[in-house]
Design goal:
The structure holds two protein chains of two kinds. Chain A is mainly beta. Chain A is 3% helix and 54% strand. Chain A is built from one helix and 44 strands. In chain A, strand 2 and strand 3 form a beta hairpin. Chain A is globular, with a radius of gyration of 26 Å. Chain A starts with a helix and ends in a 5-residue tail after the last strand. The N terminus of chain A is likely disordered. Chain B has seven helices and 13 strands. Chain B folds into two domains: 166 residues, Rossmann fold, CATH 3.40.50; 119 residues, Carboxypeptidase-like, regulatory domain (Immunoglobulin-like, Sandwich), CATH 2.60.40. The N terminus of chain B is likely disordered. The longest helix of chain B is centred in the C-terminal third of the chain and has 23 residues. In chain B, the strands form three sheets. Chain B has a five-stranded mixed sheet, sandwiched between helices. In chain B, strands 8-7-10-11 form a four-stranded antiparallel sheet, with no helix packed on it. Chain B has a three-stranded mixed sheet with strand order 9-6-12, with no helix packed on it. The N and C termini of chain B lie far apart (83 Å). Helices cover 32% and strands 32% of the residues of chain B. Chains A and B meet through helix 1, strand 1 and strand 4 of A and strand 2, helix 3, helix 7 and strand 13 of B.
Chain lengths: 525, 289
């Protein structure tokens, strides 16, 4: 059969080859936007489609078109060439992003072939762990007035991390002390995949996935694990020590690198940190790089070959380029992007970096005279300056529940407000964050003919809040208080108190909880 | 004015006295040569001379081209250090410990201090300051005629005298992906074992003949250019030797087929030249709300 085929192929090929001379170009790109069947998960009210085509070292080219009633669209022309990263935005008639998607691999556009590119398009959900055996999902495309913007996804066990990998899956990592399990959540259904979970080492600290969903990197108390999500193979990386934060960046050639933060520096400890750098797809070993600055968090951009970091001791948002000669043998130079007061978390997406820091409250003789507040700073990775937004002072209301119908409230000003996670919603118009605040107020004493009488007790409170903010003006889109716990002394005249939500502050869906981390589908972290 | 001139003469004299007491130009054969990938800042120190304009930038460029060092030129250094860098270099007056402090602030392992002064002739000095040891690792001085402009070759020779020899050795990596195990790999007449082989480090830039052979299979041969710090991946496909050539393996049949294939490629290339973009369209099955 084989011996007959070869000569026959030659006989056929010869005339066809000559016929090829007269052929004309007929290439094209056929985009198939894969959306979930579930109407609560599929992009809603889409009116326009925008195609974002980016090639390395070239500016992103955006083309928009109206979406026809039958779901078809025409997006002009694209240059012939290879290595195009394609992303799609679906917007409503009011230009709100209602869906986002990204091709899983660079696309080659040829003059004579019609190529079909399937792009999973999803609502950019914010996923939050910490709620026990449920994952909380916030729909960034819905307003706070729409009660469906919060939902719960049942999990087989309590998860510590939820990391979107590409657009189709979220890696759900449950740490069980001596080991951890990784399950896959299907974004089109919000259900856990049937496949058996992957077992890895325990002591999980943080995780990150490559934008194409190929790689998942997990930081542990004793090293890192690299998971090839296409094959399910997990490779432990030892010899790095405690890796408290991880990110996946790429060098100018597009080669992905796992970056682990070793020696996370939280003031007053301000020793310089190191980065454990692993070439993904290469040897199962890490290079340790001295960065010369104490870092508390790191992130990586999906466009620029850059790792961003937060220096809480120096009050700075910094960038660490991955395109310097000799990397990783030669330690890259750390460059300052912007000043940030006491930053605790960073994120990067689309060539821009964000950091969240805070200004502590002013306390005078046990009384907090000025409440703590958060500060959101962003900066372009290729220059262009930075922007700072000071968020409103953090205040919680406590209300007396034994005041016989009288509305007695006490507003507590936060002494501290510390964000512990930050993520960017694609394409970069919104940021999501979670923070923890502490409050204290002394006993309020009244002088009466009978002496000093405590009227309002001493109070100590903590609260956790999730915020989805407009990235430009920092206006809140979602504001959810996930927990508020109050301790107060007994024996005061008004003796029983509880937390009360402020106007514009929603309660968490289901029971309250302490958030562990958050991430965004197709987003930056 | 008088003060300035006196100061200039003192600075030139100080520079030359320092050179007179200098250590040898370079300690070759150092059993512990510094990392060839260390970071080196090239800074300029002028003692009242405007000769040899932008000499530091030329030296930085050459150093970056000829070595694997992480070279920080003066522009980069100013961005990272701040606007006072030039005045701080001048204030150091060539003092190694002082220059080392600037290097530490720049985060580099060494500073190559390019000094330009005049004492009749133009005196060009190159001084390698080890930041950690806060001392001079090597230095040279050249007297040049006023108005002379050393070529890149000249500057390369100066650098070769002041920088360690190991800095000028550069490497690339060759990966051999063979479709068979147990095939012998030869790169530039040097044997590198049997497939599968690990990444092979070779001197670069250089051109290498690569041969992968296994008994009973047609040898794979290729020639590759390995750039410094570059990676070259060679996909070696070995095919089993046929017992005898069939008619379609005769040279004239193969030649005709290759010619036809070439014409096809030509046709494709021709059509590509006439079409540099293609239309984009698509569809999505969305439920309308």
């Amino acid at each position: 059969m084989r011996s007959l085929f070869v000569p026959a192929a030659l006989v056929v090929a010869l005339p066809l080859s000559f016929l090829g001379l007269g052929a004309c170009s007929s290439g094209g790109v056929d985009l198939v936007l894969d959306v979930p069947d579930d109407p609560t998960l599929a992009p809603a009210s889409a009116a326009t489609i925008t195609l974002l085509a980016r090639k390395s070292d070239q500016p992103t080219r955006a083309t928009s078109s109206a979406l026809a009633e039958d779901g078809t669209f025409e997006l002009g022309r694209i240059a012939v060439g290879d290595g195009f990263d394609l992303a799609v935005e679906m917007r409503s008639a009011t230009q709100r992003v209602v869906g986002y998607g990204r091709a899983g691999a660079p696309v080659e556009v040829t003059a004579n072939d019609v190529i079909e590119v399937v792009i999973p398009v999803r609502r950019p959900f914010v996923y939050m762990t910490g709620g026990g055996d449920r994952l909380i999902a916030f729909d960034s495309t819905r307003d706070a007035a729409d009660p469906g913007y919060q939902s719960e996804i049942a999990l087989p066990e309590a998860a510590s991390l939820a990391i979107p990998a590409g657009g189709q899956e979220v890696a759900i990592i449950a740490d069980q002390q001596d080991h951890a399990v990784v399950r896959r959540l299907i974004t089109a259904t919000h259900e856990i995949a049937d496949a058996p979970p992957l077992e890895i080492g325990g002591g999980v600290r943080d995780a990150a996935a490559s934008p194409d969903g190929h790689w998942l990197v997990i930081g542990h108390t004793s090293g890192m694990t690299v998971v090839d999500l296409t094959s399910g193979e997990a490779t432990p990386i030892a010899g790095t020590g405690d890796v408290e934060r991880v990110a996946i960046g790429s060098d100018p050639s597009g080669k992905p690198w796992a970056i682990g933060l070793v020696g996370r520096a939280e003031p007053p400890a301000c020793e310089p940190s190191r980065l454990a750098v692993v070439a993904l797809g290469g040897a199962a070993s890490a290079d340790l790089i001295d960065v010369g600055r104490p870092l508390i968090d790191i992130g990586a951009d999906d466009v620029q070959p850059v790792v961003v970091g937060a220096d809480a001791c120096g009050g700075a948002l910094v960038k660490i380029p991955l395109d310097e000669p000799g990397f990783p043998d030669v330690a890259p130079m750390v460059e300052m992007l912007a000043e940030v007061p006491a930053p605790t978390a960073v994120a990067a997406l689309g060539g821009r970096a964000w950091a969240i820091g805070s200004v502590a409250g002013v306390i005078d003789n046990e009384i907090t005279t000025e409440a703590a507040h958060l500060v959101l700073v962003s900066a372009g990775l290729a220059g262009g300056g930075s922007a700072r937004k000071d968020l409103p002072p953090v205040v919680e209301s406590m209300v007396a529940i034994d005041a016989e119908g009288q509305d007695v409230a006490r507003n507590l000003k936060a002494g501290t407000a510390v964000a512990y996670d930050l993520a960017v919603v694609p394409p970069g118009n919104q940021v999501a964050l979670a923070y923890h605040a502490t409050f204290h107020a002394p006993t309020l004493v009244a002088t009466t003919p009978f002496g000093q009488v405590p009227i309002i007790p001493r109070m100590d409170a903590t609260s956790d809040e999730y915020l989805l903010l407009d990235a430009d003006g920092a206006a809140p889109v979602h504001r959810v208080r996930t927990s508020c716990e109050l301790e107060h002394e007994s024996g005061a005249f008004i003796s029983t108190w509880e937390c009360r939500r402020s106007p514009g502050q929603d309660a968490a869906v289901g029971a309250g909880f302490h958030p562990a981390m958050l991430s965004v589908l197709y987003g930056g972290r | 004015m008088g003060t300035t001139k006196t100061r200039r003469v003192v600075m030139v004299a100080a520079a030359l006295i320092a050179l007179a007491a200098a250590s040898p130009a370079r300690a070759d054969g150092d059993p512990h040569p510094p990392s060839p990938k260390r970071r080196v800042a090239v800074l300029e120190y002028r003692a009242g001379s405007s000769a040899l304009e932008a000499i530091d930038a030329r030296i930085a460029r050459l150093l970056g081209k000829e070595t694997s060092l992480g070279v920080v030129n003066a522009d980069d250094a100013r961005k990272r250090y701040g606007g006072s860098l030039d005045s701080d270099v001048v204030a150091c007056s060539g003092d190694a410990a002082c220059v080392a402090k600037l290097g530490a602030r720049l985060g580099v392992a060494e500073v190559l201090l390019v000094g330009v002064s005049e004492l009749g002739d133009v005196i060009l000095t190159l001084q390698r300051v080890d930041v950690k040891r806060r001392g001079v690792a090597a230095r040279i001085a050249e007297a040049l005629a006023v108005g002379a402009r050393p070529s890149d070759d000249d500057l390369g020779r100066y650098l070769a005298r002041v920088m360690p020899e190991s800095d000028f050795l550069r490497y690339g990596t060759v990966y051999i992906d063979a479709n068979l195990t147990g095939a012998e790999v030869e790169i530039g007449a040097e044997k590198h074992g049997l497939t599968p082989v690990q990444a092979i480090r070779v001197k670069a830039p250089a051109t290498y003949d690569i041969q992968v052979t296994k008994r009973g299979y047609t040898p794979f041969r290729a020639q590759v250019v390995v750039p410094p710090e570059g990676e070259v991946r060679v996909k070696a496909e070995l095919t089993r030797r046929a017992a005898a050539a069939r008619w379609y393996q005769k040279w004239w049949v193969v030649g005709l087929a290759v010619g036809a294939a070439g014409l096809t490629v030509g046709a494709v290339l021709y059509s590509r030249q006439n079409s540099d973009s293609v239309p984009v369209s698509g569809h999505v099955d969305l439920v309308r709300f």
